[in-house]
Design a protein that fits this description.
Blueprint (H helix, E strand, L loop, with lengths): L6 H9 L1 E6 L6 E9 L2 E4 L9 E4 L5 E10 L4 E5 L21 E6 L7 E13 L2 E6 L11 E3 L5 E13 L2 E11 H12 L2 E2 L2 E7 L5 E8 L4 H4 L7 E5 L2 E2 L3 H10 L4 E7 L7 E6 L1 E2 L7
Antiparallel strand pairs: 1-2, 1-4, 2-3, 3-6, 4-5, 5-6, 7-8, 7-10, 8-9, 9-12, 10-11, 11-12, 13-20, 14-15, 15-16, 16-17, 16-18, 18-19
Helix pairs in contact: 2-4
Length: 289
């Protein structure tokens, strides 16, 4: 049996959740979004399939919106919606989330406005080097971009997709996946003051099941080059904290005090962990597509 959700908490979150309509005609898409500041909305990048973009608040108020920043790899988009006048949600720390924690979601699935679904967290797992929250929520098209929240109404993540699982040859709804709030916070920080390490990387598995991030290429004029990092170096952590996903590296870059990142890394197959301090440079942020 799902845990009961206090009505006033669910209602408050519904007021912080919006409908998003993008495109025209047969190509028009619909999804959800979360108000995260005055006239600012966070949603999934895949919700924005065309222009114009219109946001509708819980009270029926509709305003045009523009995209301020887009990250298709992390499937996040930040929208500006002047005149929205909706309540703002608060972000929880997804790193404190544990398996078995009760959660609920708000979205606009299949045209049902501000529908609420409850369940529990199964795991926080890594796919393609990125962290995801897995929960047994009932979601449907139109829920994408909506909030995954704890029982206090704080947003733990942005609902993105449902893994379809086979059952006797028939596809059924599986676990819902959400972008953790840690990744959302990092995305929002980059929208304000972007930083770059100047590397191309990919995730790798180290011994004993540890996670690592291998440097494939280094910009000739970037911070990594200045700090004498090399292609083939494997980044293991920052400031003494081990990496568990690519999101952890990005979060460390975005939150490094005084723009100095203290990295732990391995070189040339050696077992001894090295340390280096990297002074970060501003990233050239491309215009949203």
């Amino acid at each position: 049996m799902p845990l009961p959700i206090p009505g006033h908490v669910a209602e408050a979150l519904r007021r912080q959740t919006v409908q998003i309509h993008a495109g025209r005609g047969h190509g028009r898409s619909a999804g959800s979004g979360v108000v995260i500041g005055p006239d600012r909305v966070i949603t999934n990048a895949h919700v924005l399939r065309g222009e114009p973009v219109t946001i509708e608040a819980w009270n029926g108020r509709q305003v045009p919106a523009t995209c301020l920043r887009l990250d298709r790899r992390r499937d996040l988009a930040l929208l500006s919606a002047p005149g929205l006048e909706a309540d703002s949600a608060s972000l929880a720390d997804s790193d404190r989330l544990r398996s078995g924690s009760p959660v609920f979601a708000v979205g606009n699935p299949l045209g049902f406005v501000s529908a609420v679904s409850s369940g529990i967290v199964h795991a926080i797992a890594s796919f393609a080097g990125m962290a995801w929250i897995q929960a047994d929520l009932r979601l449907a098209p139109g829920s994408s971009g909506g909030p995954l929240a704890d029982l206090h109404g704080q947003v733990l993540g942005i609902n993105t997709m449902v893994l379809a699982a086979p059952l006797e040859g028939v596809m059924r709804n599986g676990l819902a996946l959400a972008v953790p709030s840690r990744a959302v916070q990092s995305f929002l920080m980059r929208a304000k003051a972007a930083r770059s390490l100047g590397v191309t990387v990919r995730p790798v598995q180290l011994g004993a099941g540890k996670f690592g991030i291998m440097i494939l290429e280094i910009s000739s004029s970037g911070p990594a080059k200045a700090a004498s990092l090399l292609p083939g170096d494997i980044l293991a952590g920052a400031a003494g904290l081990a990496f568990r996903s690519l999101d952890d590296l990005q979060f460390a870059i975005d939150t490094a005090p005084d723009a100095v990142l203290h990295l732990d890394f391995y070189r040339g197959g050696q077992q001894n962990l090295r340390q280096v301090a990297v002074r970060l440079a501003p990233e050239q942020v491309p215009a949203a597509a």
